[in-house]
Design a protein that fits this description.
heterotrimer, A alpha/beta, B alpha/beta, C alpha/beta, A: alpha/beta, Rossmann fold, six-stranded mixed β-sheet, C: Rossmann fold, globular
């Protein structure tokens, strides 16, 4: 049903449709409206679940871990500092192969303190072993959240649904909230084979010796790689039911003849789509929307860049002292190709810096540079820095 | 090939596959140690064992355990000096278990309930032994021979059995009815009793040796030890033992106005109390030894049972301890007084003790009669062949006399302690040895027992202090006749005492080991355990930490080096 | 049960008249107080439990993959989140309508220090969980380092005595009162030296709907420096000296104590352990610390009213009295 909703509110209603039995909530800007809305739903009897107001994000993740291990579908959301605080638990959840779904309302990381949107938080935990899916708009966030439960419960891997804080969470949009019947159809009740139960009293979280640890990691890695198919299928199955697709692992749009590609994750794609219309005279370019960061869709990416000579990777995070995060992964993936495009890697909009439409044509001009841009914080103005800090 | 589970979960209770028992350097073992009461009992009773049965609720089973060693508990429960209580570990905690009173109660209960001895009928054609002397040693030997399935003919010079128990113990200590009942029951097992038979008169050792499978001689010491002061013996000297026996037999004895009894043993003390009852106004008891519980070393303390000494004092006997007689004061040949002097046994080095008199401490006591009661001698008539002298017979631990097939015991032993319980023990040991000899087995050097359990092996944290009950005693004003002075304890009191027993060296199924093992390596074989056999160490998992041994209240678990 | 001699020991093991959630074959040290405490706790809970276990000795020695000593559903997550894991389990079971009781197990490190926040949150939110803290007074699993629970002046590898130090500088954190200040229905201390008291308290907690907390004093032979055979004796001395008071608090109020029949000098307790041996040197600092520790014990006795005025069946001398045939009072 189409409603004009703030992104957070839409997520809250969507979560309720997925029938979690346990929701853990710790507030952090810009996720607060999600948990507040969920608590309203609980208070009004629209969502029947155990709503646990925990005392930190660490406990939020731990509560959902304990609850999921005990056989309940769960939900929590966080951002930024909260995500970092629960990092240890994230690894623990994934390594234990316990399915949970979490929203990350992407926000910059302190220090310096910032409450505004970028993707440093989710990027920082990309190695935790979770599936990470990035949402271009609030409709995708709604649909991806629902798909996340299906994917998680089938693969026995936790799924992080990343949506840009403020940009998406606090934006009012018309959103189609699916019917309960549709969601029930799509999401069967959670049946965890390894649930803690007296009839099969297993011990979870054992000490694993060097004789078996590499095998555990290999298995985990393979599970994530294999999850790519599940992600595609889940999206296709959802499309069949709802009529909407989120684009599987990644999508490519734009003229076939384009030799420049712009790859990004999250809501920035919306800005670029607008910019394409705003700057018709700009060079033709393909827009590559990367949805799944983990598993990293190497084959799909390799196919998507066919015909490109330059690929500009626009990301919302960085690895200080190294460069970009998504950029180097893209370069590595494409290096297997006989004739890969040149990869230019920039970070923009860190700490919530507005990304103006006119960034787009400036980006495209990178294709003209004799050397590919290794990495730059593209919108940083060095005049604002003392000489020794540039 | 072990397959990794998803998320590395583990299946339940799979650590059972890993035997932590391989870690051990020491292992727990059950060791039924000797309880100190058992070790100290001259007749060899395992008091801990019968107290346990009493606590478990079966008085009859307790009595049956008791009489496996001592067939005369109603007797010993009255007259024994109870070294078991002196040895009792609980004595170092709050107060010793009243084993003596418990034994008396069991003995009396058995008589009342007419419980049968655990002795099977002896085959008529089973070999027959001879026992000479129907005192406690002879009665015990006869009983134990019957227990082992052999026939016995029991001889005594008196017309009835009982020996010293009958002739020399006042009824206020040992009622005649009780003695008769105990003896009657023993004889009724099938012992052939021949009264009026004296060794060396009606029969000889050679005849007995020839006619029987073996021979046990326990004639007792019937002769008062000779006494004189500087070689002077008063003409009207009566030996204490004779007087005592006279009073017991006849109920009367000549009563002068004042007497001095010389001696510190039970005979002297008994005699002093008899004299009081006979009407003697001043009864003095003079002994070179110290009063019991005076804090002085055992070697120099009166050998009489302390409670008898105390009761004598209550009854008005005046005791002069640490005194010797320096001179007799005579009128003609009659004694009219004695000169006493203080004396003590002093250590002269290298373990030598010497009696030393202290000049300047002489006092004169005017008495009408002096009665020595300084011990008894053996009358060796009929036993000369065995090397018997006045000092007694030289025999081994088992009573072997050195002459094949002839054993001896009781007071007649040279090293006798002079107690009925020791005599009963002698009889038991000789009976065991006689049968071993008959069966062609070797005699072990001593009775083999596990090491005695000291208090340091117990864990006292697990016990609760509790007071020992006091028996009722006839007040002095009511004494004088033959009424029994000590009343013993009630059934409830005896049961409470059984509960107080530490059970030294023997498991009482407290469940501590089972409860406290961090590795669940002690298993119970019974939901409600009742003894050590009901606990099992699971050596596959026992790490040998020693917690069970440390926390075992009664010292039943010991740690042994793992081989 | 019967006395057939043909019964195998494995069969005998299965027929024991008690439940234990922890099986043999675990890798605890000889005489481990914590292993015993777990046995006693789960004996009282019975099998219908689910355990959230903190990182520490207990989870390490019970779950060396592929083996597990546990007989009940059990999860170990991290060091600091046991209270939260347990909260999640409890919420799930509640949502699913299952009656299984959730227990949280943590050492003193995982409870007093790093896990404190999660515990506090769990208590504040009124979760129906029994939290059991196995208090061996240091981070033992990592090699004996001091925790908030380490007693004053105790030696650990991060509070060693030396020219400028006399062991741990700070006092033992009074966690039971902090927990009780959450006004939860039941919080209590217990010791492995008094198994019946411990089991009684577990049963009491289990019967309560809501958060409950049990702090069990559990000697660590390796970390405290004594023979494993005397773990119980040492634990008992801790109680009898007043250094570890056995108390019960309900909704913040003191409602039960185990009186000490005859307090023993703290030095007796300390002398039995190598971790306090520096206090017996001929040193004025050592003497001062001994006095301080005695003063702390005296303070406990006064504050909690532990001095018995008459012998009591449930005081420190009576509570562990044994009887023929077992027949414990709890």
């Amino acid at each position: 049903m189409l409603k004009a909703l703030e992104g957070s509110q839409a997520i809250a209603e969507t979560v309720a449709l997925c029938r979690p039995q346990v929701v853990a909530a710790y507030p952090i800007t810009p996720q607060t409206h999600i948990v507040e809305n969920i608590s309203k739903l609980v208070a009004n009897g629209q969502l029947h679940c155990e709503f646990v107001s925990v005392e930190s994000e660490f406990s939020a993740a731990s509560v959902v871990l304990g609850a999921a291990a005990a056989g309940s579908r769960t939900y929590t959301a966080t951002a930024s500092q909260g995500l970092l605080l629960m990092t240890e638990v994230l690894y623990n959840i994934a390594g234990s192969r316990i399915p949970v779904v979490m929203t990350c309302a992407n926000r910059a990381i302190s220090a310096p303190l910032s409450i505004w949107n970028d993707q440093q938080d989710s990027m920082a935990v990309r190695d935790a072993g979770w599936i990470q899916l990035y949402c271009a708009d609030n409709q995708e966030a709604v649909d991806t959240t629902i798909q996340a439960y299906r994917i998680a419960e089938q693969t026995e891997l936790p799924v992080m649904v990343c949506m840009d804080g403020f940009t998406l969470t606090h934006t009012l949009e018309p959103i189609d909230i699916p019917d309960q019947a549709l969601v029930d159809n799509y999401l069967p009740p959670y049946q965890f084979a390894r649930r803690l139960d007296a009839r099969q009293p297993i011990s979870i979280g054992t000490l694993l010796s060097p004789d078996f640890y590499p095998e555990a990691r290999h298995s985990h890695h393979q599970a994530l790689l294999n999850a790519a198919e599940r992600i595609i299928e889940a999206d296709q199955e959802w499309q069949a039911l709802s009529g909407r697709s989120c684009g599987g692992l990644l999508t490519v749009e734009g003229p076939d003849s384009a030799t420049i590609g712009v790859l990004t994750l999250g809501s920035v794609i919306g800005t670029f789509r607008e910019a394409v219309l705003e700057y018709p005279q700009a060079a033709a370019a393909k827009l590559l929307k990367l949805r799944s960061l983990r598993p990293f869709p190497i084959e799909a990416l390799q196919q998507a860049v066919a015909g490109l000579q330059d690929l500009i990777v626009v990301e919302r995070a960085l690895s200080p002292g190294g460069g970009g995060i998504v950029g180097p992964e893209v370069r590595a993936a494409l290096s297997e190709l006989p004739n890969p495009p040149r990869v230019h890697n920039i970070a923009v909009g860190l700490g919530g810096r507005d990304i103006p439409l006119d960034l787009y044509p400036r980006l495209l001009r990178l294709a003209e540079a004799p050397q590919p841009l290794r990495f730059a914080v593209f919108d940083a103005d060095c005049n604002k820095l003392a000489p020794e800090d540039r | 090939m072990t397959i990794l589970t998803r998320g590395a979960f583990a299946w339940p209770a799979t650590t059972l596959n890993y035997h932590t028992g391989t870690w051990r350097v020491q292992r727990p073992v059950h060791l039924h140690g000797t309880a100190p009461c058992h070790g100290a009992c001259p007749s060899g009773e395992d008091a801990q064992a019968w107290l346990a049965k009493l606590e478990e609720g079966s008085a009859q089973a307790a009595w049956q355990t008791l009489v496996e060693a001592n067939p005369l508990p109603a007797v010993t429960g009255r007259i024994c000096h109870h070294p078991c209580e002196s040895a009792c570990n609980r004595g170092q905690y709050d107060s010793a278990i009243a084993i003596h009173h418990a034994e008396r109660w069991l003995g009396d209960e058995a008589l009342q309930q007419q419980w049968a001895y655990p002795v099977a009928a002896v085959a008529a054609d089973a070999p027959r032994f001879a026992v000479v002397g129907a005192g406690p040693a002879g009665l015990s030997a006869s009983y134990h021979l019957l227990r082992q399935g052999y026939n016995v003919t029991l001889y005594d010079e008196l017309p009835v059995a009982g020996g010293t128990l009958r002739t020399s113990l006042p009824q206020y200590r040992l009622p005649r009815a009780v003695l008769d009942a105990e003896i009657e029951r023993i004889l009724a097992l099938g012992i052939t009793f021949q009264g009026h038979h004296r060794l060396g008169r009606e029969m000889s050792i050679e005849e007995l040796r020839r006619d029987y499978a073996g021979l046990f001689i326990a004639p007792g010491r019937q002769v008062g030890r000779a006494w004189s002061v500087d070689g002077v013996t008063p003409r009207d000297l009566h030996h204490g033992l004779e007087l005592l026996q006279e009073w017991i037999a006849l109920g009367t004895v000549t009563a002068p106005a004042s007497v001095a009894i010389i001696g510190g043993g039970n005979t002297a003390v008994d005699l002093s109390r008899i004299m009081k009852r006979a009407g003697v106004q001043q009864v003095h008891l003079i002994t070179h030894q110290a009063l019991p519980e005076s804090g002085q070393e055992v070697v120099d303390v009166m050998s009489a049972i302390p409670r008898e000494v105390y009761q004598a004092q209550e009854e008005g006997v005046e005791i002069h301890p640490n005194r010797g007689i320096r001179r007799l004061i005579l009128r003609g040949e009659r004694v009219v007084g004695i000169e006493m002097v203080r004396m003590k046994k002093l250590d002269r080095g290298q373990g030598r003790l010497e009696r030393v008199a202290f000049s300047g401490t002489e006092t004169v006591l005017h008495v009408d009669q002096v009665i020595p009661a300084i011990g008894q001698s053996l009358d060796p008539a009929g036993m000369e062949r065995l090397g018997a002298t006045e000092e007694g017979l030289e025999v081994s631990f088992w009573g072997e006399s050195g002459h094949d097939g002839i054993f001896a015991g009781g007071d007649a032993r040279r090293d006798s302690s002079g107690t009925a319980s020791a005599a009963i023990g002698d009889g038991r040991r000789a009976a065991l040895a006689l049968v071993r000899r008959l069966q062609g087995q070797m005699q072990p050097e001593r009775e083999v027992r596990a090491a005695t359990v000291g208090i340091e092996q117990l864990n006292l944290s697990y016990f609760e202090p509790a007071t020992r009950p006091q028996q009722a005693i006839l007040p002095v004003s009511e004494r004088g006749g033959e009424a029994e002075i000590e009343q013993g304890l009630s059934e409830e009191q005896v049961q409470a005492e059984a509960r107080r027993c530490f059970s030294c060296g023997n498991c009482f199924a407290c469940d501590n080991c089972w409860t406290l093992c961090p590795d669940s390596a002690v298993l119970k074989r019974h939901e409600q355990a009742s003894g050590g056999a009901h606990y099992q160490f699971d050596l596959d998992y026992c790490k040998g930490c020693g917690l069970c041994a440390n926390e075992c209240p009664c010292g039943y678990i010991q740690m042994e080096e793992e081989m | 049960m019967s006395t057939e001699t043909t019964i195998s020991i494995a069969e005998l093991r299965r027929k024991q008249p008690r439940f234990s959630a922890i099986e043999s074959g675990h890798r605890a040290c000889l005489g481990c107080g914590q292993a015993l405490a777990v046995r006693l706790v789960t004996e009282a809970t019975g099998p219908d439990i689910m355990i959230a276990n903190a990182t520490g000795c207990l989870e390490i020695f019970t779950t060396p993959w592929p083996e597990s000593a546990w007989r009940v559903p059990w999860m170990h997550s991290l060091f600091e989140n046991t209270g939260a894991i347990a909260s999640g389990m409890e919420a799930a079971l509640k949502a699913q309508g299952r009656s299984t009781k959730v227990l949280a197990f943590g050492g003193d490190g995982g409870t007093f220090d790093i896990g404190f926040q999660a515990l506090s949150g769990m208590l504040e939110r009124d979760h129906n969980v029994l939290y059991v803290c196995y208090d061996n007074e240091a981070y033992m699993n990592t090699g004996v380092q001091r925790s908030g629970s380490t007693p004053h002046a105790a030696m650990t590898n991060t509070s060693p005595p030396g020219r400028e130090r006399m062991g741990k500088r700070h006092l033992k954190k009074d966690v039971i009162n902090i927990v009780a200040s959450h006004h939860i229905p039941y919080a209590a201390t217990a010791s492995v030296a008094y198994p019946s008291d411990l089991r009684k308290k577990v049963r009491r907690a289990l019967a309560i709907e809501g958060p409950t907390f049990l702090q069990i004093h559990a000697p660590c032979p390796l970390g405290w420096g004594h023979d494993g055979a005397i773990s119980i004796s040492v634990a008992r001395m801790a109680v009898e000296s007043g250094m570890f008071p056995i108390i019960e608090l309900e909704r913040g109020e003191l409602t039960g104590v185990m009186p000490i029949r005859k307090p023993i000098p703290v030095a007796d307790y300390l002398r039995a352990q190598q971790r306090f041996r520096h206090l017996f040197a001929d040193d004025s600092r050592a003497r001062e610390e001994l006095e301080h520790l005695q003063a702390l014990a005296d303070h406990n006795i006064e504050v909690y009213g532990l001095q018995a005025d008459a012998d009591d069946l449930r005081d420190t001398s009576g509570a562990d009295t044994v009887r023929r045939g077992g027949m414990r009072w709890a």
